[in-house]
Automatic annotation (TrEMBL):
<dbReference type="GO" id="GO:0003700">
    <property type="term" value="F:DNA-binding transcription factor activity"/>
</dbReference>
<dbReference type="GO" id="GO:0043565">
    <property type="term" value="F:sequence-specific DNA binding"/>
</dbReference>
<dbReference type="InterPro" id="IPR018060">
    <property type="entry name" value="HTH_AraC"/>
</dbReference>
<protein>
    <submittedName>
        <fullName>Helix-turn-helix transcriptional regulator</fullName>
    </submittedName>
</protein>
<dbReference type="Pfam" id="PF12833">
    <property type="entry name" value="HTH_18"/>
</dbReference>
<feature type="domain" description="HTH araC/xylS-type">
    <location>
        <begin position="77"/>
        <end position="178"/>
    </location>
</feature>
<keyword id="KW-0805">Transcription regulation</keyword>
<keyword id="KW-0804">Transcription</keyword>
<dbReference type="InterPro" id="IPR036163">
    <property type="entry name" value="HMA_dom_sf"/>
</dbReference>
<keyword id="KW-0238">DNA-binding</keyword>
<dbReference type="InterPro" id="IPR009057">
    <property type="entry name" value="Homeodomain-like_sf"/>
</dbReference>
<dbReference type="GO" id="GO:0046872">
    <property type="term" value="F:metal ion binding"/>
</dbReference>
Length: 190
């Protein structure tokens, strides 16, 4: 089955967009638009998903075939944008309001689909994303824990510290002492 719109798994940043665009161009396809999680091809060059899947897998991506998997990847992409919204908005929306606005679907529906396909809740996935962002900020050693907590919209440094330990199994100070702190890429979160 050939198609002009392909849904791609593990696209989490602008470099992923560039990499996927390059992979498709090298394979002889003409992408007209590449965004997080999607590749739109020129009408004259539809692709067979099973033909491009090996190329994508080799680079750490994959084609998503089912609707539930597609929606889950779209939610993951939206959550990346939500983290930026949290960081920059004066009065940030709640996660549920942000996602229901984005997808014009109930949060209950989005949550059920996400939990079923990702094997964890949207909330737990978002917490993991936040902790990875916190690890990044900690590794730069430019801000105090309180400053990071404020930037990431935690109620306090203690709340962040508790959640950090719960997710990583280590304290913030243990993480800071580690010469080579282990961070995960967003596509490894779930």
């Amino acid at each position: 089955m050939k198609t002009n719109l392909l849904h791609i798994k593990n696209m989490v940043c602008p470099r992923c967009i560039d990499a996927v665009r390059t992979l498709f161009e090298q394979a002889g396809y003409t992408p007209t638009d590449v965004t997080l999680g999607q590749v739109q091809l020129d009408e004259t060059t539809p692709a067979d998903p099973s033909a491009v899947a090996p190329l994508l897998r080799e680079a750490g991506f994959d084609v998503i075939m089912g609707r539930a998997d597609q929606l889950t990847e779209q939610i993951k992409s939206a959550l990346i944008e939500y983290l930026e919204h949290l960081r920059t908005a004066r009065m940030p929306l709640t996660t549920s309001a942000f996602l229901t606005d984005r997808f014009a679907a109930t949060y209950s529906h989005l949550s059920k689909v996400f939990s079923r396909t990702a094997n964890l809740t949207i909330e737990k996935y978002l917490i993991r994303m936040k902790i990875e962002r916190v690890k990044e900020m900690l590794s730069y050693n430019e801000m105090t824990l309180s400053e990071i907590a404020e930037k990431m919209r935690y109620s306090s440094g203690q709340h962040l510290s508790n959640q950090f330990r719960q997710v990583t199994g280590r304290s913030v100070s243990e993480f800071r002492r580690d010469l080579l702190p282990r961070r995960l890429s967003l596509d490894q979160l779930g």
